[in-house]
């Protein structure tokens, strides 16, 4: 994994998300107030931009069709379906949001497993 600097914390308002491209992956980074979260930005239903969804507690609602995604686990909690989105570790250092993103080699190993 590799920690990647995303932005200053003040660039993502509380209860909002922002999209950032890391390699070929579009990642949604959310400010939950007490912490930040990062997930794949594409809703598994029809590819809606999760960064534009409404944030409530630890979930975000897809703006296209209302699927609710848990920002901690990536699980779809409404409707109850056995799919999820990727979740990436996040930390804040010196006022900067960082996302731990797998390197190309790690992603290839995970796909083969």
Give structural attributes.
mainly beta, four-stranded antiparallel beta sheet, 44% strand, globular
How does this model look, in words?
This protein is mainly β. The chain is 8% helix and 44% strand. Strands 2-3-4-9 form a four-stranded antiparallel beta sheet, with no helix packed on it. Strand 3 (25-31) and strand 4 (36-40) form a beta hairpin. 29% of the residues are buried. The model is unreliable at 104-113 (pLDDT under 50).
Low-confidence stretches: 104-113
Major beta sheet, strand line-up: 2-3-4-9
Structural class: mainly beta
Number of strands: 11
| Main β sheet profile | 4 strands, antiparallel
**How far apart, in Å, are the first and last alpha carbons?**
17 Å
Strand content: 35-45%
* CA radius of gyration: 14 Å
Helix content: under 10%
Oligomer: single chain
In a few lines, what is going on in this structure?
With 113 residues, the chain is mainly β.
Task: Record the SSE blueprint.
Elements: E1 2-8, E2 16-22, E3 25-31, E4 36-40, E5 54-56, E6 59-61, E7 68-70, E8 76-78, E9 87-88, E10 90-93, E11 96-101, H1 104-112
Antiparallel strand pairs: 1-11, 2-3, 3-4, 4-9, 5-6, 6-7, 7-8, 10-11
